[in-house]
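Predict the assembly for these two chains.
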Amino acid sequence: MDIAVLGATGTIGSLVADRLEAAGNDVRRLSRASGVNTETGEGLEAALDGADVVVDATNIATIRATPAVRFFARSANNIAAAAKKGGAGRVVCISIAGVTKPGAALGFGYYRGKCAQERAYRAAPIPTTIIRSAQWFELGEQMVAQASLGPVAVLPQMRMAPLATERAADHIVGEIIATGRGVVPEIVPGQNARLAPEDGEDPRNRIVRLRGPEEMTSAQLVRRILGARGSVAGRSPSLVTEYPYLGRRLAGGVLVPSSEGTIVDDLTLDQWLAA
Amino acid sequence: MTELRDRLRKLPAFPSDLPVLDPDSVPEDPEALFRDWLEEAIASGARQPHAMTFTTVDEAGFPVGRTLILKDIEDGAYQVSTHRTSRKGAQLEQDAKASMIFFWRESGRQVRITGTVIALDDEASQADWASRPSFTGEPNPDWQVYALVPSAFEFMQAREDRQHTRIEYTVQAQADPDAAAPSSAAARTWTHGPVPTPAG
């Protein structure tokens, strides 16, 4: 297959591109650096023309709603239109588990951006697979880098079921290869639910959910990484605590995928740390 | 000796009928003691018992204090609200370290809370905005509720003889990877004891 990966220099994009290539696909590694701007559409049509599948692994580094919504909504619209025009079978969008649940994005502007992205794909003129992954272990590093103040780290309290990014990439690539240009695999009732067709959605659309084997909170994740490594992101706070400042719903477990058929990766945090 | 100094020295100090702070019978959780003192200040009819000096650090590293009202205590953190674009908002953006000093002069009590300030989510901020007397029905995206997550408390009970009683609480360091260890700000464990340095 000929697969275009947008955001190919990013954390998940590069892992997905590597794996797709290793599996014998032709991969177009696309990014701002390669001259493709998904938000403005610059370079996009030419970059996607003739690809079988388009993977949207784009990202923007912001926590504020306004730039996040603008970026994700515009990018999704532009990508879907360019993918359709270029003859792709479908778009695969990498999203985050739980962010579209009621109220989940109230306290966190970035998640509003991801909601806007999913909404845009629901209305897209081309079949879409949305892969909603739970948080990745590396989130602990980002949190410590952002929330440390001297010896104190007050993390946003989030209950999650994290998994290794590499494993998330394995599952994402598995889905891309299994479904190819757009033949949806057999649907087991309740499993990997399609976007509801009764709402006028295209039944060729599909949602895949990923999570890790254990539930934990932000502080528990960070403490276990600190316990194994001594420092996280170059810091070793002696006081790691958490507070529900990104909203109570995130602290309450809305980010933990609970649907039947969710893919549960089996690599535990301890195994990942020991590797 | 200036004339002012003379007059200042003659001002009355603390009276004899002050409450007593017994270091051996204080609760393990500083929030319980704080709430006791706040409730007693409210019940006493003292003016603005919820007012305190909120100190942040400016861009040059100088402490900057102002009087603010405590809005709520939730999940172990102490809330204030302001415009995000205010000077204190800008200072907190740069440096999240802050302290609150409550002084209830009638009972001779002072509490200092030191910690890290975090910005709460928009939902909490807009709910606070909507509860203000000046609310006209329009949301204010610039309004921000901040919560100070304490890492230390100092409680002082003044005495007539000026041998003031001071108890400090310090949060237990928790880089402990034990998943069962309490992690939320509300569930942390504290150690406490008398302040070892002279009161002055």
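The first strand of chain A starts at residue 2 and ends at 6. Residues 65-85 of chain A form the longest helix (21 residues).
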